[in-house]
Amino acid sequence: MDSSSIVLIYILTLISLSFPTTSTTIITLPLEKVTNTQTQSSLSTDPWKTLNHLASTSLLRANHIKNPHKKTHALSTPIYPQSYGGYSVSLSFGTPPQTSIPFVLDTGSNLVWFPCTDHYICQNCSFSSKSNPSIQSYKPKLSSSSKLIGCQNPKCGWIHHDDTDDIQSRCQECTPGVSNCTEICPPYLLIYGSGSTTGLLLSETLHLKPEIVPDFVVGCSRFSLRIPTGIAGFGRGEASLPSQLGVNKFSYCLLSHRFDNTEKSTLLVLYSGSGSGDTKTAGVSYTPFLKNRVGVFSVYYYVGLRKITVGGKKVKIPYDFLSLGADGNGGTIVDSGSTFTFMEGKIFELVANEIENQVRQYKRASEVETSSGLRPCFELPKNHKGMKIALPKLSLHFKGGAEMELPLANYFSLVGNSQVVCLTIVTNNADSTRGVSNGPSIILGNFQQQNFYVEYDLENERFGFRQQTCN
Fold this sequence. Notes:
The protein is an alpha+beta fold. It contains eight helices and 28 strands. It has a six-stranded mixed beta barrel. It starts with 25 loop residues before the first strand and ends with a strand.
């Protein structure tokens, strides 16, 4: 079934809306890895299958980020429910507040949405909400503060961008000039790298202890394709959680990826209110955010990556790929929703070749490269445990002098008892002779952010980081 052909019929009474209040406190939320027992058991017998799946989903994610308006995707990855290689926060909505629902933290999208009603359907997820109670859904009928958003409400334009300046085009059943039209905001259809979701916009009360935020815009999804869990958009648009809350800074520290089911968590911290001025966090290196003026890419957090070094040697990457062009293409973004970092074909080949040139002591693992979808992969000595693995350092150098020297575990993966390590960076193998393709050239994923304190300082328009153990 094509998700773009779904028609939702969902009737609620439309009640007048008011704007949310601004929090003046620091709010902390547990931040956990998105895992699923069924997923882990299905992959545990073949660790390279795990890497292949995460590499595939990372590529699908990158293809979507680079082509956000494209409605179809070549979905070649196996279907594993909730195996996003991502991180989740739990949020509670409604009056009275309903049980907290997990949301995938996604800095590459805007809308916050949850599985909605008893009839939520997740197609190609290997299960449905009725047969698997682990899919938590929100029940509008149980909340006295749940209200459908009308088509004339300016907030409807947050998700239907093309119609923002033309209310009549989305309120087709309303009489022109009539301000009390009861037509609801049209259904949304959101396309992600791994699937899609569709539903209606609601105004609802969000509970963030100790704050209560009324009239928060949230998506009530009735149908999803391959996405059983809600998503919390933390991007730069009006509908995102930071924008609606008036957050001036947020930070997180991502637990290490170990491809296992852990109940450990760290904290997502939201700062809002009068702001902290130009105060910097101790030990944090900063680089300015860059703004992409092209509408489809304006939601992303761009940073000025100046160079990449391998073993201290600068990789000679053409300037056009690292810089953000006037057409909106090129440059680097930070994306918590991507697992492995993506590099445009030209950049990846230069980086991978330099790594291969510097690694002479280990044999290439060609069979593993085929099965995992990653390269280069190297065979380690049988007695490598306890030994120092000699692989070149990979460092990212940003505008302003900030340098992110990645720990080995953040760019080479050793799974289970395997004697093989693979570079955890993916590429689309684009034809480098054609120059920069659509969208960002580099997408810094969460695998490379693990065990880093990461800060999005929205007030001062800068991105900060420092290496630390996130436990």
